[in-house]
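Hypothesis: this fold can be encoded by more than one sequence.
Test: take the structure tokens below, design a sequence, compare later.
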């Protein structure tokens, strides 16, 4: 790539840098699989099924909480919440 290729010359003589295109990160999270998730607001891990994947997060259905004190929060959320993709690990 030449230096000339990295700038766009405006008709009035000003130069503008070309912004790099943002590409979504590739993830190994799949819809329909079951994951162990660390969710903000919960004191322990949560086992959940992935329903939909967004850019940096996923919509999940909570199956079971590892700690009993988190069960009330699960009921309040209606068994569904959003999790960061980096906080999801495939359950074995």
């Amino acid at each position: 790539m030449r230096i000339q290729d990295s700038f766009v010359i405006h008709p009035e003589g000003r130069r503008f840098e070309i912004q790099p295109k943002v590409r979504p990160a590739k993830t190994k999270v799949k819809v329909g699989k079951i994951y162990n998730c660390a969710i903000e607001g919960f004191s322990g891990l949560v086992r959940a099924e992935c329903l939909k994947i967004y850019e940096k997060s996923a919509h999940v259905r909570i199956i079971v909480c590892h700690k009993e004190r988190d069960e009330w929060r699960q009921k309040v959320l209606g068994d569904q919440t959003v999790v960061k993709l980096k906080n999801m690990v495939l359950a074995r």
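The beta strands are 7-9, 15-17, 34-38, 45-53, 57-65, 80-84, 88-90. The radius of gyration is 21 Å.
Hypothesis status: open.
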